[in-house]
Specification:
Pfam families: Cytidylate_kin (PF02224). Strand 4 and strand 5 form a beta hairpin. It contains nine helices and eight strands. It is globular, with a radius of gyration of 17 Å. Bound molecules: cytidine-5'-monophosphate. The site of cytidine-5'-monophosphate (C5P) has 15 residues, from helix 2, helix 4 and helix 8.
Length: 223
């Protein structure tokens, strides 16, 4: 068939979601933000007062978690927990650490795997995350590993938080980003790393338009 998948992996703040969203619009394909799915689980664990690092406690409540993703009229992904729209709530800064902690638990990753693969079976997608090219969609036609120096990523994230009305000092953003990078790439369950056949796109010295062009070029070369 002519359905294809684009996997975009990389550390936080590399611009994965903003760029993937734009590229999806340009190519007329579906954008899937898998970080939002982990954030939804993290948010649930947070509301239940469970320690996100307690593997057994988290695994024990998974069967009761009812997580859904739906697409609005604007084509954008919205996340639901037990039927309630939590799209905005999962962006609260404290939920990042919860998402990162629960995502290291193999039972959580297994729980979410089919949901992600199913999206790619239904339509052409550009899916972003940490293990899309390595684990979720190993047969994706295009794999991109998006990265940038941590200082540059922290600066971009600081600006983004400011624009969202939830500002945080740069130094703190940088420290938390370094912690999350370390945790995401050193965990034993699906650690963050480029797939062997991924094209590395380093956006340290690129602006948004240049990054978008670089990604579109890689996709057009391979589809
Ligand atoms: O991409 P985002 O920052 O929203 O993801 C939140 C957290 O979810 C990440 O720090 C990472 O630990 C986890 N995650 C993951 N695998 C994915 C997507 C996100 O482990 N495919």
């Amino acid at each position: 068939s002519n359905i294809y998948s684009v996997a975009v992996d990389g550390p936080s703040g590399a611009g994965k979601s903003t760029l993937s969203k734009e590229v999806a619009k340009e190519l007329g394909i579906v954008y899937v933000d898998t970080g939002a799915i982990y954030r939804t689980i993290g948010y649930y664990i947070f509301t239940q007062g469970i320690d996100p690092k307690d593997e057994r406690a988290v695994a024990a409540v998974l069967p009761e978690v009812q997580v859904d993703m739906r697409y609005g009229a604007d084509g954008l992904q919205r996340m639901f927990l037990g039927g309630t729209d939590v799209t905005e709530k999962i962006r609260l800064p404290e939920i990042s650490m919860y998402a990162s902690a629960v995502s290291a638990i193999p039972a959580v990753r297994a729980f979410l795997l089919e949901m992600q693969r199913d999206m790619a079976r239904r339509s052409s997608v550009i899916m972003d995350g940490r293990d899309i090219g390595t684990v979720v969609l190993p047969n994706a036609q295009v794999k991109i590993f998006l990265c940038a120096d941590v200082q540059v990523r922290a600066r971009r994230r600081t600006l983004e938080l400011e624009q969202r009305g939830t500002p945080k000092p740069y130094e703190q953003v940088l420290e938390e980003m370094e912690q999350r990078d370390w945790a995401d790439s050193h965990r034993s369950a699906a650690p963050l790393r480029p797939a062997e056949d991924a094209v590395v796109v380093d956006t340290t010295n690129m602006d948004f338009a240049q990054s978008k062009d670089a990604i579109l070029q890689v996709i057009r070369r391979r589809t």
